Amino acid sequence: MHTKIDLRESLNLPNSETTTPAEVFQNQTLRPILKLQNDLYLSLFTNYALRQNADFNSLSVGKKNVFIEQSIQKDSVLKNTFIGMTIGMFTLEELEIYHSDSKVFNKRIITMLIERLKSQMKYL
Questions:
Q1: What is the C-alpha to C-alpha distance for residues 93 and 81, in angstroms, rounded to an integer?
Q2: Angle of CA points 33, 36, 37, to nearest 5°
Q3: Which residues contact 40 (CB under 8 A, 6 or more apart)?
Q4: Which ranges constitute the DSSP H helices of 1-124?
Q5: Each residue of 55-94: pLDDT tens digit?
Q6: How many C-beta neighbours within 10 Å does residue 16 have?
Q7: Which of 52, 58, 89 lies closest to 71, judged by CA?
Q8: pTM value?
């Protein structure tokens, strides 16, 4: 039986003496989960965008970027859904780390997710 960690691709991001524990968690846990869940995040956001703005597909890339940022930052249900999708892929040990500074980790999740969605405009 595979574990949640087995499902994730190892990104092999280097750490140095100046790498903080939050950055280590981001690089070893959050980034691989965001990559693993990418198709789900894209599908969820595309569905959301079309429900909120029927003309979403005809918007310029710049306007799509603004829409992505504002939607995720201002719609707490959408934001919490994305955070929940990410947390759901944690192991128990990772959840303990997450609980130690959830506010910081939530901000990192959302920031990386926004950038990930914006960089994939051609799929939206």
A1: 21
A2: 85
A3: 85
A4: 4-7, 21-25, 31-36, 38-52, 61-74, 76-87, 92-100, 102-119
A5: 888 999 999 999 999 999 999 999 999 999 999 999 999 9
A6: 6
A7: 52
A8: 0.88
